[in-house]
Amino acid sequence: MATGFEFFERDLRLATEGLAPEAINDALAKFARKELRRAISEGIASEQYDRYVNGVKGAVEESVEAPGPIIYEFVNWPLVIKTALEELQRRAPRKSGRFAASFIVVAGGHIASDYRSIPADAEVIVTNAQPYVRKAEVGLLGIRPRRLFDGTKRVLNARFKDAFAAETRFLTIGAGVHPLIPYILKHSQGGRKDRQAGMPLTYPSIIINAVR
What we know:
By secondary structure, the protein is of the alpha+beta class. It is 29% helix and 22% strand.
């Protein structure tokens, strides 16, 4: 997602009261850089961003003419997706490492590898291509903690609650997304219609959307 933040006029008045115009511009530039470093260091913004100074893309902060604005437009999909994958892999079973290496990211119906190019308004799905992913999610593989996807969803929502919303669902994923998908159930798993032999597996997934 691309999100921007401007620096509030009230803060600027407090910081620049009594200064000459040149000094105000310098103070504004320094304040902008300070807030940028803070946002990145606190993990709420990506290190990838576009900068606009007085409406000019790529201009340096020092070129600002008060009151600006200075706006940073962050490309946050890489940060959010990386966080999701790291948390899922941390929770994943590790007997062979195959499962932990099988998480996939889907955007626009296709595997996404260049997260920076994902549109801000896209819906991103993170799942795992292995056919035993349901067992991993509900704790049937004997791993701790259980609920790989649901637990990761809570981590994402706690960290990115102002910019992204994550939810978990069991999804039917069609052919063409990944060579292992869809897996067709060979044996019935309970009484539900979607768990009968011959039906495609439904995949526990995290669905992530930008907050609008």
